[in-house]
Amino acid sequence: MLSRTADNLYWLFRYTERADFVARILEATMRLAALPTSYSGVRNEWESALAVAGDSDIFHLHYDVVNEDTVRDFLAFSQHNPSSIRSCLESARTNARGVRTALTMEMWETINDAWLELQRGRRSDMDRNAFSDFLQFTKAVSLNFDGSAYRTMLRNDAYYFTRLGVSIERADNTARILDVKYHMLLPETERVGGSLDYFQWTTILREVQAHTAYHWVYRESVRPWLVADLLILNRQMPRSLACCCESLVRHLDLIADLYGRRGPAQRFASATSARLGAARIEEVFGQGLHEWVSEFINENNRLGAAIAEQYLI
């Protein structure tokens, strides 16, 4: 496979996964912001949304104030933000056009129809109900696109590169959610383990589609260290860091077997997965969740760079 084709497939799936992630950030933030002021204390939900998305610096170049209207516009529709939902779907469609012959008809129709629908009527001046519908639309696009790939693509190198894109992006997204919740979302005046803390962790579980899974695994009320255990170390949880790393190892090995050569990306992914396999949640919190997650995000970025250098350039 040409490196350009592999690169397009890899980024096509990263962008669709990112669009879904940003939609979930906005949905969760709207839910948190709807709490009464007397219940939620200091309001910093919209700053947290920017921090999770990693786009605060770009935001402040174009907006003077952080509030619901500006953050919604920036994260959903702004062409200045390369990670906005609009920008992600546009970039996904551009990458899809570049590898049209490598996609099945169902995949192309899903991403192309989504872009045409976005062009027809998705605007930054939506009321809350219309905006909620837009977020549901975005999540449905990502789910349908990934589902169509799973159901219709041959299990060959093209498919393996799509899985690398999904896994790298999903690991980064989950790590950022955990980091921002633990590091900055709970106001200093609120008690860890209090009602607001409980509501925020529950919202995050719903944001990553893990609320039901949490209760199946732990069968007790929401506790921060158990949420972290589920989203970091539980390999049965599709969005956990451990599961994403396991997927990276598996598909990098399949690519290596197909091409008859291993390299730095395989070794890096295996080392990261082994470190997660040996970790315990008590050790993670002992080191400091923020510090541990920040280190993982850096490792994940280095793995992405290793994959790009080995296969995509």
Topology:
Elements: H1 3-33, H2 37-40, H3 45-53, H4 56-62, H5 68-76, H6 85-98, H7 105-121, H8 128-152, H9 157-185, H10 195-207, H11 211-218, H12 224-232, H13 241-259, H14 264-278, H15 281-287, H16 289-312
Helix pairs in contact: 1-3, 1-5, 1-6, 1-8, 1-9, 1-10, 3-9, 6-7, 7-8, 9-13, 9-16, 13-14, 14-16
Concise summary:
The protein is built from 16 helices and no strands. By secondary structure, it is an all-alpha fold. α3 (45-53) runs antiparallel to α9 (157-185), α7 (105-121) packs antiparallel against α8 (128-152) and α14 (264-278) runs antiparallel to α16.
What percentage of amino acids are in beta strands? under 5%
Task: Give a quick account of the main beta sheet: strands, pairing sense, barrel closure.
Answer: none
Class computed from helices, strands and strand pairing: mainly alpha
Helix proportion: over 70%
Give the CA-CA distance, first to last residue: 12 Å
| Radius of gyration, CA atoms, in whole angstroms | 19 Å
Whole-number tally of structural domains: 2
Anisotropy-based shape: globular
* Low-confidence blocks of residues: 38-42, 185-193
Number of strands: 0
How many DSSP H or I helices?
16
Helix and strand run: HHHHHHHHHHHHHHHH
Mean pLDDT: 88
